[in-house]
Amino acid sequence: MTPIETHDVVVVGGGPSGATAAHDLALSGVDVAMLDRAGRIKPCGGAIPPRLVKDFHIPDEMIVARIKSARMIAPSEKSVDMPIDGGYVGMVDREHFDEWLRARAALAGATRIAGTFRRIERDDDGVAVVVYQPRAAQSSAAGDEDSSAEEAADGPERRIRALCVIGADGALSKVGRQCVPGADKLPYVFAYHEIIASPEAESGAAFDGQRCEVYYQGKLSPDFYAWVFPHGATTSVGVGSANKGFSLKGAVKDLRATSGMAQCKTVRKEGAPIPLKPLKRWDNGRDVVLAGDAAGVVAPASGEGIYYAMLGGRLAARAASQFLATGDAKRLALARKWFMADHGRVFWVLGLLQHFWYRNDKRRERFVSMCRDKDVQRLTWDSYMNKELVKRQPTAHVRVFLKDLSHLFGLVRP
User: Fold this and answer.
1) 16-27 and 94-108 helices cross at what angle (nearest 10)?
2) DSSP reduced 3-state for 215
3) Which residues pair with 188 in a beta bridge?
4) Which of 23, 156, 294, 336 could form a disulfide with 173 if both were Cys (CB 3.0 to 4.6 A apart)?
5) Under 8 Å CB-to-CB from 6, ≥6 apart: which residues?
6) CA 353 to CA 308: how far, in whole Å?
7) Where are the alpha helices (DSSP H) in 237-373?
8) Residue 283: CA atoms inside 13 Å, Cβ hemisphere, count?
9) CA torsion 213→215→221→222, rounded to 10°?
10) At 63, is the secondary structure helix, strand, or coil?
11) 44 alpha carbon, distance to own chain's centre
12) Model pTM?
């Protein structure tokens, strides 16, 4: 019999989280394979903070636009501009950004495998065997709100033996559902967007290539938000919602029409689930650990996920390295412990914000009104840029808290 292919670690998924994990492991000398299905582009606004650029050494050519402000649009169509003082939000195109990350992992020494994960089996010694089929077909998510459908694959199943498996295969992670208790109960919203050619100046659209627009309107999303995010030559127009009866495609069509983008060329369409909160457990206590969307690390309220996915991949790689070095499966749980120590409070605060302010249009109106406050704007951007709650301005936090209560209880006119 032909000997089964063997690696120290198999990373399932080649998005930002999986590619980062594979890259870091390969750089540290670990024999790692990265299994990724071909043709998949996740729907994503593409925003990355300067801290991600610095921490993960992203080259300038990957940044297709630099956003200098955000415009928040209320149900009444009133808007609030939030300029970024002395900074920017970088925008990437996931079609090119993800592939660059995968290629970088391969250059570092990771083995790339194109295929679709099927399941994890065990050999006679109890070691994990990753079963996959080679060459996944083009994503069924293009133009389809139900991206959970099984895609076709070519050839018979193949197997890879691995001492450790990192599941970085998205919000509906097959690795997680098979191996990690509670992973099948991950709450999520469904996101859908259309990448379009950015409007020309003479098109009549109220479009600014250096400004993101965020729509807090129940007609566009009953429980989340809609967006227009410039990517240079292209633009992401999208919406998210956990309401299964809500038409995401219809909302994007309406948004394109009202914003003057109905006639812009559609480049591609994508849809996928976006998790709402981190799982309580990321590992199986044996040899599997989750990362990225599979672990639920997308920020509530904002839906921001690229930075947290890449950090999750890095921490999973670090935990896997310690597991390989010691044989102690408890080391895998460190990935979640490290992440939550640095970002758990931020996720908790953002979860409260989403719970209180996204419930109905009356509250959304007050939320957008609150965004006019300079303290709110400064703390929002400082926290976003640095990926932590700002600690050097305690009095500003108190002022924001009091103002937040005033808006919530209707003591301030929207």
Assistant:
1) 20
2) strand
3) 275
4) 294
5) 160, 161, 162
6) 19
7) 248-258, 306-326, 334-357, 361-370
8) 24
9) 150
10) coil
11) 7
12) 0.88
